[in-house]
Amino acid sequence: MSDNKSMAAMTLVIVAVAIMAFNQYTLMSINGGTAAITGNVVAEQQNAATLQEAIDAVIPRGVPAVYGEELGVSFDKPQESLNILANLDGDLYDNGKLHFADLTAEQQESYKQIGASIACEYCCGATTLIFSNGQPACGCAHSAGMRGLAMYLLINNPEMSNEQILDELTDWKALFFPKEMVAKYMQQNGLTQGAAELPDMVGGC
Predict the structure, then answer these.
(1) What gap in Å lies between CA 194 and CA 197, rounded to an integer?
(2) Which of 23, 63, 74, 83 has CA atoms 20 to 30 A from the CA of 6?
(3) Given its phi and psi angles, is residue 190 left (phi above 0), alpha (psi -120 to 50 degrees) or beta?
(4) In terms of C-beta distances under 8 Å and separation of at least 24 residues, what long-range contacts does 180-189 make, across chains too?
């Protein structure tokens, strides 16, 4: 009888230990899951902040100070502004207002330097805006818009340097290709969050 009581007591102890172990495991699992969820939320918030930082650094806003009102363009209206800027390029469009031939010899050299330093590679794969003779290297509206603006600024704002004009073209390129330009910025700055939710491009090729 004593042996039977000992066995029963031992069984109860084993069952109690097993229940305690199971409860502890369950509690740890819940806590671990909660920590993982919290960690994911924090990571997502950090990624979102990083992406917004990149967007703020790359994507311009408002009306360009030097020429925005004159041309009726705004960074806040990329599609409408693209149409206006592209229609300046008379080397591509018959009704375009400006031509390479309209530039002075000095302006033509600046135009060639600027046009060789930027392209619409995300649209049609062109590596420059112009060929070495100053004529369009690509027939898309993005390229025409950047060429048109470059000619306009060379003619109407001679105090601007080639670098300043190139900066203006780069701002528009960021608007025309937001996903690629933001992703490029993030890669250059060692940031890992992607820009998948941004649109591929403004306008078509």
Answers:
(1) 8
(2) 23
(3) left
(4) 180/122, 181/58, 181/59, 182/51, 182/54, 182/55, 182/58, 182/59, 185/54, 185/57, 185/58, 186/50, 186/51, 186/54, 189/54
Return per-residue pLDDT of the chain as tens, 205 residues. 444 444 444 444 344 434 444 445 444 554 555 444 444 433 344 455 688 888 999 999 999 999 999 999 999 999 999 999 999 999 999 999 999 999 999 999 999 999 999 999 998 889 999 999 999 999 999 999 999 999 999 999 999 999 999 999 999 999 999 999 998 998 888 876 666 566 667 766 6
> Residue 182, Cβ neighbours under 10 Å: how many?
23
Paired residues of 172 in beta bridges: none
Q: So where are the chain's domains?
A: 1-31, 68-188
- Contacts of 41-50 with C-beta under 8 Å, sequence gap 24+, read 47/193, 48/193, 50/186, 50/191, 50/193
Burial class of 195 by CB neighbour count within 10 A (0 to 12, 13 to 18, 19+): buried
- Angle value at C-alpha 75, between 103 and 106, nearest 5 degrees: 15
| Beta carbons within 10 angstroms of residue 146's beta carbon | 30
Cα separation, 81 vs 200, whole angstroms: 17
